[in-house]
Specification:
Pfam families: BORCS6. This is BLOC-1-related complex subunit 6 C-terminal helix domain-containing protein. This protein is mainly α and 149 residues long. It has three helices and no strands. The chain has a domain of 34 residues. The protein is 74% helix and 0% strand.
């Protein structure tokens, strides 16, 4: 079957109005459409008030969509700000915890050092305690001598 140029095909009922609307007037086969074609093309009346109502509704819908998207954008910015603040607070808390742990560790090392020094000092105290005990026993022996009373 031989291919026919779509502009040269005979129009059917469904595409006749499309062909007339899409082809420039000089390419149409007949200068004026037949009365059957006019009934097909103009069978649906166009109501200007309906088109105006659609446009008003479309503008209202576009405005509402713009408002919703703007609200969404501001909420997302607010969420991002809160998330950033939360991370900053968490970072500060971790730093403060690390600083507190470092200080605690330093204090614990100082305490251990002090306890070790105290333990060394206590070794001398034990020696002194033994010497004091020996002196006390010697003093008790001297006091029990008969000529000292």
């Amino acid at each position: 079957m031989e291919e026919v140029d779509p502009r040269r095909r005979a129009p059917n009922k469904r595409t006749a109005h499309l062909q007339r609307a899409s082809t420039p007037p000089r390419e149409r086969e007949s200068p004026e459409p037949s009365s059957v074609d006019q009934n097909i093309v103009f069978s649906v009346p166009i109501d200007p008030s309906m088109i105006e109502a659609i446009e008003v509704n479309a503008r209202a819908l576009a405005g509402e969509l713009d408002r919703v998207i703007g609200n969404f954008e501001s909420k997302m910015a607010e969420i991002a700000t809160h998330a950033h603040d939360s991370v900053a607070i968490h970072t500060d808390a971790v730093k403060a915890c690390c600083d507190a742990l470092d200080a605690s560790r330093s204090n614990m090392l100082a305490l251990i050092t002090t306890v070790d020094e105290l333990s060394e000092d206590m070794a001398g105290v034990e020696s002194l305690a033994l010497q004091i005990k020996a002196l006390k026993e010697a003093l008790d022996v001297i006091e029990q001598l008969p000529g000292l009373k």
